[in-house]
TrEMBL record:
Residues 1-23 form the signal peptide. This is DprA winged helix domain-containing protein. Keywords: Signal. It comes from Aquisphaera giovannonii.
């Protein structure tokens, strides 16, 4: 079950950073903040990808938050 608070926090962080980030980088940055666990953060990242609000970039397993999901990444 996805945690709406975790999804919002992770989306806000990725949007603020403005560059692709490795999933492990996001977990390291947020684990423990407001009681978030690594599994919740990974679940939030997965939810963002499944919802089309973030994309996985295969090289290096980077996550890119895209506030306009219709734009294509190259």
């Amino acid at each position: 079950m996805r945690d709406a608070k975790a999804v919002k926090l992770v989306a806000a962080a990725l949007s603020f950073v403005g560059r692709p980030a490795a999933a492990s980088e996001v977990v390291d940055a947020f684990e423990g903040i407001d009681g978030l666990r690594g599994a919740q953060i990974i679940d939030a990242l997965s939810s963002l990808v499944l919802d089309g609000r973030a994309r996985m970039i295969p090289r290096g397993e980077l996550i890119y938050y895209d506030p306009s999901p219709t734009r294509e990444l190259r």
